[in-house]
């Protein structure tokens, strides 16, 4: 009767439900339930890289306004107050004063001088201004594409780390369940050994296994903590926030492999094209230095002079005020700049040609990324199929071994070995699904569809 009871308890311990353990762990953890979409949305709203990319787009508008200001009138007011303790003298010919052959030293000016006025400058033609305005608009488009590319990078990092956390938690769940089952077996064997129904070596084997599981479990706990911290960092989330990842997030959905993307529509390529456009504008702005410039200038001023400070003083005190104005056209025609401008134009041309090589290399890289992602996906599908079959087979072997053990046809060692094989098969399947998910992310990225994960 004791033998039957022992076998029943042992079988019950080994077949404990892992899902119960998992639910219990989640209940203890508490915290924020986080789907992949939630994680990505949080990251795009809170990660510093996403915020900085948006600020660059905002700042590009101010750059446009700065360049546009060069084409608008520049108006300024000015004022001055000068005291001359010693007035400069000038030597002039005395013939002007009826004393030919003599020189007269005369002082010109007053002790006090004060002036106020308004000046205006308006650019009429300046090729650098017009080119700069077009370049500023392209700069805004550049930062808009860069913002999209930054978001894609954030989505990729968050998704990869999200699945890494999930698989580590699955491994921890398997180890927790295995630890509980092995601990129960140890307790049962301890009781049987005390009653002389079990061998010391069997008890020691279970104790060693329990110690190994405990060590593995602690290592996985550390991996989970580190991986969660990495995920929270890439999300811009405080590390003290507890998170729960639903099981449904690990479902496998096959991606179509027949669509060949046009890499010239991907943001990585578009960003370089926009950069090429900016370099062309830079070259044109340098060439514009060969062109003449024409501007209008105008000013109106009011001047006061006298032996006293001119403010609030009447002409009776020797202080006089007068106004004057001027309007002019200013034309500047470059003739020779020492070949400096020509050298800058050639430098700009070299920069453009260098970027064109980057475009060719990037196109090849993006084509390769799609091809590699497709191969990875195909291999991952084969691996998942094999590991799923292997897991199901290991489960069948475990069930048969349990039945044989209950009938006395299998030893305890056989049962423990089969259970280890089943746990390994579970972990291998989880790793295979993780590999598929990572390959899936790379495929989606190579097709420029990462935002579909939002």
TrEMBL record:
Q: SUPFAM superfamilies, alphabetically?
A: Outer membrane efflux proteins (OEP)
Q: Does the keyword Cell inner membrane apply?
A: no
**Localization terms from the record:** Cell outer membrane
Q: Name one GO cellular component term.
A: efflux pump complex
Give the signal peptide, or none: 1-18
Q: Which UniProt keywords apply?
A: Cell outer membrane, Membrane, Signal, Transmembrane, Transmembrane beta strand, Transport
Q: Which domain of life does this protein belong to?
A: Bacteria
Q: Key word Ribosomal protein present in the record?
A: no
Task: Provide a Gene Ontology MF annotation, just one.
Answer: porin activity
Q: What PANTHER family does the record tag this protein with?
A: OUTER MEMBRANE PROTEIN TOLC
Return the similarity comment.
Belongs to the outer membrane factor (OMF) (TC 1.B.17) family.
Name of the protein in question: TolC family protein
> Which species does this protein come from?
Flavobacterium shii
């Amino acid at each position: 009767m004791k033998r039957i009871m022992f076998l029943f308890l042992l079988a019950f311990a080994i077949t404990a439900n892992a899902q119960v353990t998992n639910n219990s762990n989640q209940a203890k953890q508490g915290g924020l339930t986080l789907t992949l979409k939630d994680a990505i949305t949080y990251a795009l709203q809170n990660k510093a890289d996403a915020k900085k990319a948006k600020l660059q787009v905002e700042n590009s508008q101010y750059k446009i306004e700065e360049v546009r200001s060069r084409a608008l009138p520049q108006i300024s007011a000015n004022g001055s107050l000068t005291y001359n303790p010693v007035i400069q003298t000038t030597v002039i010919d005395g013939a002007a004063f009826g004393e030919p052959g003599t020189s007269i030293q005369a002082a010109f000016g007053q002790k006090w001088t004060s002036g106020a006025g308004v000046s205006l400058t308006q650019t009429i033609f300046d090729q650098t201004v017009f080119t700069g305005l077009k370049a500023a608009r392209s700069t805004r488009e550049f930062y808009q594409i860069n913002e999209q590319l930054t978001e894609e990078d954030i989505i990729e990092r968050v998704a990869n780390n999200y699945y890494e956390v999930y698989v580590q938690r699955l491994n921890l769940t398997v180890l927790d369940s295995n630890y509980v089952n092995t601990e129960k077996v140890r307790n049962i064997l301890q009781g049987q050994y005390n009653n002389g129904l079990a061998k010391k070596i069997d008890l020691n084997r279970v104790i060693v296994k329990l110690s190994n599981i405990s060590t593995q479990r602690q290592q996985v706990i550390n991996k989970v903590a580190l991986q969660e911290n990495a995920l929270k960092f890439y999300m811009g989330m405080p590390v003290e926030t507890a998170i729960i990842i639903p099981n449904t997030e690990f479902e496998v959905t096959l991606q179509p492999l027949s669509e060949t993307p046009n890499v010239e529509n991907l943001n990585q390529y578009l960003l370089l094209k926009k950069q090429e456009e900016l370099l062309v504008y830079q070259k044109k702005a340098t060439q514009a230095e060969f062109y003449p410039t024409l501007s209008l200038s105008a000013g109106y001023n009011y001047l006061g002079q006298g032996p006293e400070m001119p403010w609030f003083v009447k002409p009776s005190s020797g202080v006089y005020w007068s106004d004057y104005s001027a309007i002019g056209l200013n034309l500047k025609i470059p003739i020779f700049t020492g070949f400096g401008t020509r050298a800058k134009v050639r430098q700009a041309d070299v920069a453009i040609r260098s970027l064109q090589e980057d475009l060719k290399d990037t196109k090849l890289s993006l084509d390769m990324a799609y091809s590699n992602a497709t191969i990875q996906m195909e291999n991952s599908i084969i691996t998942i199929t094999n590991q799923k079959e292997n897991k199901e087979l290991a489960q069948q072997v475990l069930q048969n071994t349990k039945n044989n053990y209950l009938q006395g046809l299998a030893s305890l060692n056989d049962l423990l070995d089969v259970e280890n094989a089943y746990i390994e098969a579970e972990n291998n399947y989880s790793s295979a699904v993780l590999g598929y998910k990572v390959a899936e992310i790379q495929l989606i990225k190579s097709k420029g569809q990462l935002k579909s994960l939002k």
